[in-house]
Amino acid sequence: MRIWQCRRALGAVWEPIFSPASTFSQPDPPGRHMSSYYPLPQQPVPPLNQTLDKYLMALRPLVSEEELEYSMKQVKEFGKSGGIGEILQEHLEKRARKMPNWITDWWQQSAYLENRLPLAVHSNPAVVIPKQDYNDWRGQLRFAAKLIAGVLDFKNKIDTHTLVVEYMRGKPLCMDQYSKIFSSCRVPGPKHDSILQHGRSRRGPTHITVVRNFQFFKLDVYNSDGSPLTVDQIHMQLLKVRSHSWKTDKEPLGVLTSDHRNTWGQAYNTLMKDKLNRDSVRAIQSSIFTICLDASVLKFSQEKYTSRIAAQMLHGGGSYSNSGNRWFDKTLQFIVGEDGSCGLIFEQATAEAPPIANILDHVLDYCENPETIRAPMIPLPLPQKLYFYITPEIKRDIEHAKQNLDILINDLDISCFIFRNFGKSFPKKNDLSPDSFIQVALQLAYFRMYGELCATNESASLRWFHLGRSETVRSATVEALEFVMAMEDTEKEVDIKLALMRKAIDAHSKCTEEALLGQGIDRHLLGLKLQAIEEGISIPKIFMDTSYAVATHWKILTGQV
Predict the structure, then answer these.
(1) Which of residues 406, 430, 457 is at a domain's end?
(2) Please, which contacts does 100-104 make with residues 24 or more away whose CB atoms are closer than 8 Å?
(3) CATH number of the domain to which 302 belongs
(4) Domain count across the chain
(5) Boundary-marking domain end, from 406, 435, 453
(6) Does residue 84 sit in helix, strand or coil?
(7) Domain of 188?
(8) 247, part of any domain
(9) What is the CATH number of the domain that holds 553?
(10) Among residues 186, 51, 56, 60, which one has the least CA distance to residue 119?
(11) Is the Cβ–Cβ distance between 296 and 338 less than 8 Å?
(12) 132 and 95 in one domain?
């Protein structure tokens, strides 16, 4: 589960060296756009022995001495000269020479498309943006119109190849993810899901999906001459959507997309047997993006506002709230509440969070100062309401999905807060990485609660490389363990604790640097394992080891955007 609060809501926040904020802190060379040719380097395959040595170091703070000793034997056997490890490494390097990126397709499949847990809560990240200055449906529709126009303005930059290339530390980042975000959707399958990409066709879709009161509409957002609708035109169309979507006993069909992927896959097959349903579902899947016009949520105290709104963005509040106003498979869904609460939720098999955050930043800037273009005096067609034929079998599927989602939501605790004692300037003044400072603090907090460290995953961008996605920074290091144990020792001098803290922070910073350079261990180990599977070779014992299971079961999943 990941929830982010848009950084403009927080003012100054921590910015790791791979965040979108630091991306833009680098001066851009003039005139560099997406159409410019950048020979981005290919993602490297790290040396085998280097990865195996780092893997053993990563195990040290997580497993017992006996388990570590057994794992060392497995690693030694795997990495010996002429052994299975060297063979798989050689084949992986051969794969890397043939493919644009040796791990990206595998990563998308194994991390996302083969994962059978529900997308709601478990997978789709949510973003909360500042509460907007309105509290009725009129303000909701006006803001939604500006937001839609802002998204289309960003999309135009992609379509016309005028989107400025992002930089980090003076080096360009891969921009490929932007072209996959719009007009795409995940589709459930029996064993693994797939991604539909409609935006890369010569004549891509020209409509968005608007959903209100569990009812879906297909709304064309371009005029006949190809120009996008103005804010006023979009507002008029949204008024028409509202007038045709009064509260009724409509089934919350969208809740089906929140269920376990196998269960939803079976319901999807049932749903798609009918032509009316197929046409409606395909209109949603191919739409540029989705706008969810949510009803107001129950009043609650200001103290709990952020946490409750985060829950709304993450899952819609349940089957009797706004969860039926979602299509969780859709790559990009903007949520505009009638009470001023707004945000988005996205399906991340297609893209990581930084590109999504950059789109949102652009949209919010646009909403503050939208283009005032006079609307053409031409009548617009009515938004097309999407109808579904609900059989008794589909009705049962919806009821089961509602029950499962409500159970999941009731089992979830969300507590959002802002730490006000100090910000990133404090660790910076002391020559400490703010990101590493927080990661080490998390290790101390976990140790004080459970008396041990656990596998901790912090996501780092691999966009320095062509088609790069992400790598894992392992925050639970040997140095972190030494520090937290010293902190619990009342006889240890403060100077010693401080020195060990700096050592732990430096170790994390080094791990981050290595991950950014494609020298992390997790994607490499995954690649070696999947290479064996692809070749029909028995999975090497190193991956069947209990220690490997412990080291890859993330009890803490962290990230900063």
Answers:
(1) 406
(2) 100/42, 100/466, 100/467, 101/42, 101/43, 101/465, 101/466, 101/467, 101/468, 102/42, 102/43, 102/45, 102/527, 103/43, 103/469, 103/523, 103/526, 103/527, 104/43, 104/467, 104/468, 104/469
(3) 3.30.559.70
(4) 2
(5) 406
(6) helix
(7) 122-406
(8) yes
(9) 3.30.559.10
(10) 186
(11) yes
(12) no
* The two structure tokens encoding residue 255: 């809740």
Q: Residues 270, 402: one domain?
A: yes
Query: Tokens 């126009």 correspond to what residue?
Result: 149
CB 207, CB 220: distance < 8 Å: yes
Helices 478-487 and 434-450, packing angle to 10 deg: 60
pLDDT tens-place values along the chain, 561 residues long = 666 555 444 332 222 333 333 343 344 454 466 544 468 999 999 999 999 999 999 999 999 999 999 999 999 999 999 999 999 999 999 999 999 999 999 999 999 999 999 999 999 999 999 999 999 999 999 999 999 999 999 999 999 999 999 999 999 999 999 999 999 999 999 889 999 998 776 778 999 999 999 999 999 999 988 999 999 999 999 999 999 998 777 899 999 999 999 999 999 999 999 999 999 999 999 999 999 999 998 777 777 888 999 999 999 999 989 999 999 999 999 999 999 999 999 999 999 999 999 999 999 999 998 877 777 778 899 999 999 999 999 999 999 999 999 999 999 999 988 889 999 999 999 999 999 999 999 999 999 999 999 999 999 999 999 999 999 999 999 999 999 999 999 999 999 999 999 999 999 999 999 999 999 999 999 999 999 999 999 999 999 999 999 999 999 999 775
Whole-model pTM? Answer: 0.92
Are 382 and 454 found together in one domain?
A: no
DSSP state for residue 164 in the 8-state scheme: B
CA 433 to chain CA centroid, Å, is 24
Report the distance separating Cα 547 and Cα 446, nearest Å.
20
402 and 455 assigned to the same domain: no
**Same-domain check for residues 247 and 290:** yes
In this structure, are residues 292 and 336 in contact, taking their beta carbons and an 8 Å threshold? yes
Q: Is residue 95 part of a domain?
A: yes
Rounded to 5°, angle at Cα 346 from 24 and 218: 115
As a whole number of angstroms, the distance between CA 187 and CA 178 comes to: 20
Hey, what are 230's tokens?
Answer: 């103005």
* Nearest residue to 465 via CA among 67, 213, 174: 174
346 and 236 share one domain: yes
Confirm whether 193 is domain-assigned.
yes
How many other CB atoms are found less than 10 A from the CB of residue 317? 21
Same domain for 259 and 385, yes or no, is yes
Q: What angle is formed at CA 2 by the lines to CA 453 and CA 551, rounded to 5 degrees? A: 30
User: CB within 8 A of 138, min separation 6: which ones?
Assistant: none
Structure tokens at 244: 């045709």
Name residue 242's amino acid.
R
- Whether 469 and 382 share a structural domain: no
Written as one letter, the residue type at 13 is V
Phi-psi category of 318—alpha, beta or left, where left has phi over 0 and alpha has psi -120 to 50?
left
Structural domain includes residue 63: yes
